[in-house]
Amino acid sequence: MIVGNHLVKRYPGGFEAIQDLSFEINGGEMVFISGHSGAGKTTLLKLLGAIERPTSGSLLVNGQNLMALRRHALPYLRRNLGLVFQDQKLLFDRSALENVLLPLEIIGLPPKEAQRRACAALDKVGLLAREKARPIALSGGEQQRLAIARAVVNRPTLLLADEPTANLDPDSARQVMGLFVAFNQVGVTVAIVTHAPQEMPPHPVRRLLLNHGRLAA
Amino acid sequence: MKTWLRQHLTALRRALRRLWRSPLNTFLSLLVIGIAMTLPAAGYVFLDNLKTLGHNATGAQQISLFMQPDLERATLQETIRQLEARLPDQWRFVPREEALERLKASEDMAEIVASLPQNPLPDAFIIEPLDARPEALETLRETLATLPGVSHAQLDSAWVKRFDAFLQLGRLAVNLLAAVFAVGLIAVTFNTIRLQVLAQADEIEVARLIGATDAFIRRPFYYSGLLQGALGGVVATLLLFSGLTVLKTPVAQLAALYGSLSGLAPWSLPLLPLIGAILGWLGAQLSVSLALRQGE
Fold first, then answer.
1. How large is the ipTM?
2. Measured distance CA(B205)–CA(B197) in Å, rounded
């Protein structure tokens, strides 16, 4: 599913956020990427989500070498990834349903089918009753669940999340983590960046511990 | 194909929604575009009417054919036959006797003509061609000069040439004006779309992250520019039509003196919206390309 070989990510100015990192994440696995602040967790997630390109090394995601991927091919790769961000990146001028519909509009699904799938995704995260609500009217936990609904509506094979429970109360964090476990149980590969490994659920997960851009464990 | 069409319809709907959501901005933009397009369009209508007016002015486009003195009857008949074949109903014959009578009728010339021992005037033909373009007149004059028995072919064209030069100058000025306003229209659309791109920066970022292609992101902005330009063109057509309606009475008085004057031809009605749409699309294209490149 994901194979990284001698990955390096160097930013302008010379700072190396990822240094000679090699790892594998198998299909159907649930992986926690953790480490201290500045360890390179978010950078690694950005590389996996093709948001940034590695400086050197090789990175295969869903069988595609991101180093060789052309710019115009990126959108098609991203459609097979579900991305969940710490700040959710929701559109506040649209309803919950319209936020979830956006990825389906992008792939050009017929409106009826898109509506059906968006409602199903909202139902999975327990927000169907709030489909018309704007994100501003939702709690932090609900916003994060809405972001998860948008990430999974395209039925991705890989779900990537950056600190999805960082700003949530314990109950909401448990709910959100429960959703990731549920998606992993139906075969979706899940990679979650977290700075709080104690949040790891009682579910078979693997932990990638980063230390100054290198794999520590 | 269906998906492609659906995505275009969605983009069109989103563009319409954007225009509808900020009615004041939309109204002001359309008014600016409308006025910018009205001025050169009004210039073209004015020139078109001026041209009609000039060509309708009687006696403006004449070629005089002066025949050789003591011309044989048969040669004259041949000239008449050829003129009738080339320019039916566009010529008249002025016999030398009639020309002398006319000269005598003129107060200043009567005494001089009476003192002449014989009629010095030749037979002549006055040609009033239907095609009054200066270059066509000159070509015709050269051709007519070769007709049998013709001693001299004279194009009474000084006025026509001056008028045509004036029209050409006017056309050049209006073309320049149109070019300046076209650039202005592109700039207005450029700025409006740039503001829209900035306002939609979050949406663009999210759309990119979840797999939107550049075409998907650009399309609604293209439609915005295109709609804005086209609607601006409609405003310009309405302004022009209103202006011509206001001028109807004085124009009708002029028309009574110089023949019929034209307003907006039916075929020209979709022209301004079409030109507006093209320029609006161009402004949007430039704006989105620049804004998205800066946002990357």
1. 0.86
2. 11
